[in-house]
Write a structure and sequence with these properties.
This protein is mainly alpha-helical. The chain has a single domain (11-283), classed as Rhopdopsin 7-helix transmembrane proteins. 73% of the residues lie in helices and 3% in strands. The protein contains ten helices and three strands. Helix 7 (193-228) packs antiparallel against helix 8 (233-259). The protein is globular. The termini are far apart. GO terms for molecular function: G protein-coupled receptor activity; olfactory receptor activity. Belongs to the G-protein coupled receptor 1 family. Keywords: Cell membrane, Disulfide bond, G-protein coupled receptor, Membrane, Olfaction, Receptor, Sensory transduction, Transducer, Transmembrane, Transmembrane helix. This is Olfactory receptor.
């Protein structure tokens, strides 16, 4: 019994998206194309920021970092999801499963904090425009991005530490297409109810704090625009709307999957696919393209 506290399960089996072999084969091409577009779109955003001096502003620096995080987050689960569509046995090693959990929470936690940073950038730009260049200088932007990565890493390590030594000794089928913590801990050979609550609380503190900060930031921005601004209201609201859309696309699936009291498997899988494969990548690419087109068009007076 000296290995009672160690895992005796060397691998897990994913149930996948559905039971139909024909449907899985049909989904292979659209999922592959979506992932390819996601990779190209995000890397193009980063490349545009690096090569275009007109985009070297705090807003687009943060946007480029967000695109890179989205690229990493999509790459954690989508390639295996795509290749597993052709397999009958969708197997992942124990180490691979733990790595997926670590990376999903690392990039996901970092993206939450990065969205808060972007909201702060918009707050300074709209509410304190005369002090924007001095407040959001290059050094501060770099520090804010580093903070988002550090918080994401600490969050991911705390999640992994709580499940890494669980005794997995029996069932090993995960009813999903990736290693999602709530589903993985159900396979442990012990009562994990209290542990599940602790894990949800850990994630909930980070997600709730970020979401509240985002709500406060955008509420203050919208109130300020309505009270003090007339001519610039349309442009400011357009910028805020784009960021709010990104926030909703990111937090919407997370809130439904992890906080909704009723668990509907097919709905959870659909939202997980949306979150992992689609996300907010194309909207950010559209914003950069829109910015470049606006700069090329001659001003009309």
């Amino acid at each position: 019994m000296e290995e009672a506290n160690q895992s005796v399960v060397s691998e897990f089996i994913f149930h996948g998206l559905c039971d139909s072999r024909e449907l899985q084969t049909f989904l292979l091409l659209p999922f592959s194309m979506l992932y390819l577009l996601t990779v190209v779109g995000n890397l193009l955003v980063v490349l545009l920021f690096i090569t275009d001096p007109h985009l070297h502003s705090p807003m687009y620096f943060l946007l480029a970092n967000l695109s890179f995080v989205d690229f990493c987050l999509s790459s954690v689960t989508t390639p295996k999801l795509t290749t597993d569509l052709l397999k009958d046995n969708k197997i992942i090693s124990f180490g691979g499963c733990m790595t997926q959990i670590l990376c999903v929470h690392f990039f996901g936690g970092g993206e939450m904090v990065l969205l808060v940073t972007m909201a702060y950038d918009r707050y300074v730009a709209i509410c304190k425009p005369l002090h924007y260049s001095s407040i959001m200088d290059r050094q501060k932007c770099i520090r804010l991005v580093l903070i988002s990565w550090i918080i994401g890493f600490v969050h991911a390590m705390s999640q992994l530490a709580m499940i890494f030594d669980l005794p997995f000794c029996g069932p090993r089928r995960v009813d999903s297409f990736f290693c999602d913590i709530p589903l993985v801990i159900k396979l442990a050979c012990m009562d994990t109810h209290s542990l599940g609550m602790l894990i949800n609380a850990d994630s909930g503190v980070l997600a709730t704090t970020c979401f509240i900060l985002l709500l406060i930031s955008y509420t203050y921005i919208l109130v300020t625009v309505r009270v003090h601004s007339k001519d610039g209201a349309s442009k400011a609201l357009s910028t805020c709307t784009s960021h709010i859309t990104v926030v909703l696309l990111f937090f919407g699936p997370c809130i439904f999957i992890y906080l909704w009291p009723l668990s509907i498997t097919w709905v959870d899988k659909f939202l997980a696919v949306f979150y992992a494969v689609i996300g907010d990548n194309f909207y950010m690419l559209a914003r950069l393209i829109k910015k470049k087109k606006r700069r090329k068009c001659p001003s009309q007076k």
